[in-house]
Design a protein that fits this description.
It is built from three helices and six strands. The protein is of the alpha+beta class and about 140 residues long. GO terms for molecular function: GDP-mannose hydrolase activity; metal ion binding.
Length: about 140
């Protein structure tokens, strides 16, 4: 399920825009941007091999607005579907795929960044580099 399914509760679904608008009012530098959405994975055999496997990710698209409006929503638990299957349980959430990395320098130090106060969530915490524009 690489794409998010809208929640049947229209008021809850509308809260996504409301939460986003509130966050942008408080932080005018926030902007919406595309993110990959995790939609599951399979274990695949590589070129007919019986022992050489690789992981195939099933990805869709989501965006930062939907992430803030579902996963960071104070009512986030209401977006979840009771299920043992993570994909079913999270079908109404953004499920963005994280892309952090651990970077070790040649002198055996680890690079850790500090997030700005000026972000949508988890501000002023330590994190690992994600993309070149942040490193």
């Amino acid at each position: 399920m690489p794409y998010r399914i809208a929640h049947p509760d229209i008021e809850l679904e509308n809260s996504i825009s409301e939460i986003w608008d509130q966050r942008v009012q408080k932080n005018a530098s926030m902007f919406n941007g595309k993110k990959f959405r995790y939609g599951g994975h399979t274990l695949c055999k590589r070129d007919g091999s019986q022992q050489d496997f690789h992981v195939c990710l099933h990805l869709g698209l989501t965006d930062y607005r939907t992430f803030v409006g579902t996963n960071l929503n104070p009512l986030w638990e209401k977006f979840l579907v009771p299920s043992e299957d993570d994909l079913i349980q999270c079908q109404h959430t953004s499920c963005p795929l994280g892309n952090g990395a651990i970077l070790e320098t040649s002198d055996k130090k680890i690079v850790v960044l500090q997030r700005s106060y000026n972000v949508g969530g988890i501000s002023w915490t330590r994190c690992f580099p994600r993309r070149p524009s942040r490193a």
